[in-house]
Structure formats: structure tokens, C-alpha cells
């Protein structure tokens, strides 16, 4: 859910939007890899809402890849962008309809700005996959309310028709001076040159590689666990993020065929982890 701390993450995300796992200079930063996009649409939202009165917003979503995701509906103050209220619904399918139940507290201040976004579970706005918006002004009562839907989720049984890579599972914190597992899922189409899948932990401030691991990818959809060996000198107070990539052997980072990034992690020293 959108928080004040998200502004800090958003600034870090913008600073490293063109990162290279080889720590290439910003001037040489490649464009993001294009893969099919997730979508999010508002199916129904009230025309007006009132304080201390819950209401429903119905949304429809789709994703080219089945992964744990969450749909956030957030109320901001339109003048200050301060978060005031919201809701989050976890989803797992590749497409479906969901209902979000939102409650506007007494202290919320108009004018209102509403937005919705879908992101991997555990991630916030900087790592959103798709967004949507609607208008619902403050009124004496909820106008044109929406009836709640039965939440649905569907997963395709067909194999993926594009190359992709996901950071499937990872620790909430990496201990400096220790190894930690990162689970990666990927799909590699047939007739590809020798390709490697990599998991990389990077420092958010300058995109410097903290730890990395790689393995040769094979055709088809697979999941594997990679061990990242974090050096003992890694700074515990430095924001970090994880990136997974699919890249042909011997090619530059700009020639990667797929990537994924997650931000909800950190580096700790062992003393902090034991405390």
C-alpha cells in the first residue's frame, strides 16, 4: 500500500530505472526489455463517497505470467499526494475480476485523487505492473454504489510463448558474510543461443553489484534456486534490490532477453539477524 516511505523507494527506482548488472555508466544504460504487459481496469466505482462509509470498487486484471500479485486501491490528497486510505487484495491467477472494499476515515481531506495498481506481492508503487484511475468526489453519501463481485482467478494451461524470468522467492533480508537462496523461474523458447539465467543483488544508490549467481538456462519453463554469497563488507544500511535476467552467453547486458526486479529486501549484518 502506498506509504510515505514509498516516495523514497520511487526516487531510488527512478535513479536506477536504466541499471546494468555490469554497472554500466548511466550514459550507456539500455532500454527496458519489452515483454507482454499486465493490465488493470476499473469496472465499477461510485461517483461519490462519504466519510466513515465503506464502499466497493470492482477491477479486472490480467498478467502474461502466473505469479503472486496484489491489487492496491489508494486514496491520495490531490494537492499533497499524501496517502489517506486504501485497500489491498492478493491475487494469483493470470486474469480475473476482484472487488476492493475501501473505507474513507473521518480525517481524510479533499480534494481526492484515486488510483489503483497491480504489483508483485510484497512490492509497492515503484515496482507496479499496471495502473488504473477513477474519480469519486467527497459527498454526503455514497452515490451510484457498486455491488461486490465474486473474486475470480484463472490460470492458462498453455505454455508461455515468450522468454521471461521472475524472482519467484527471496529472503526479506540478506546477511552480510553469508549465503542466501533466491528462487528464480524462467521460460526459454526453443532454438536460442546458449543463454544464462542470473540473480543479482545490487545497491540502489549506484547500481553496484553486491552479490550474484548464474546458471545455464535450458529450453522450457523451469524454476531453480540460486545461492547468493553476500560479502561480509556489504553495507547493512544501504538500500538494495534484486534483479533476475536471461542473457545470451558472451553478450552485453543491453542484449538481455528478459528481466525482473524486486525491492522488498535489505542487507543486514549477522548480529542484527540474531537479535
List descriptors.
18 strands; 2 domains; Immunoglobulin-like; 2 helices; 4-stranded antiparallel sheet; 275 residues; mainly beta; 44% strand; disordered N terminus
Structural overview:
It contains two helices and 18 strands. Strands 5-4-7-8 form a four-stranded antiparallel β-sheet, with no helix packed on it. Strands 14-13-16-17 form a four-stranded antiparallel β-sheet, with no helix packed on it. Strands 1-3-6 form a three-stranded antiparallel β-sheet, with no helix packed on it. The chain folds into two domains: 4-10 and 32-138, Immunoglobulin-like, CATH 2.60.40; 164-274, Immunoglobulin-like, CATH 2.60.40.2550. The protein is globular and about 65 Å long. With 275 residues, the chain is mainly beta.
